Amino acid sequence: MIFSATHLNLLALTVLADDTPRNTGPDFGKASPIGLLVVVLLLIGVFLLMRSMNRHLKKLPKTFDAPPDPAPDQQRAAGGAGEGAVEPPAVADSAEGPAGPPNG
After folding, report:
1. 82 located within any domain
2. Please, which of 7, 52, 70, 79 could form a disulfide with 74 given CB 3.0 to 4.6 Å?
3. pTM exceeds 0.85, yes or no
């Protein structure tokens, strides 16, 4: 079925020219107190979330760049690889390994 422009214009005109009012009555357009309560609770929730986010953002450092490493001669003078450095675990020379003797 092919609609021409004339048919579409006529359909739009009849829909727009329809004067029958819809959704009318004594309570149409009035908001209930429960709707107001929901809106107020949502606003309070948004306010608390924004305040919490600002507190967390203030705790973040200004930059996430790693601090520069001290010069190698300063590391030796400090007595090792530097503060907080973890030494690699010692390697055992036995054939047993960390899980015990082989099952073979």
Report:
1. no
2. 70
3. no
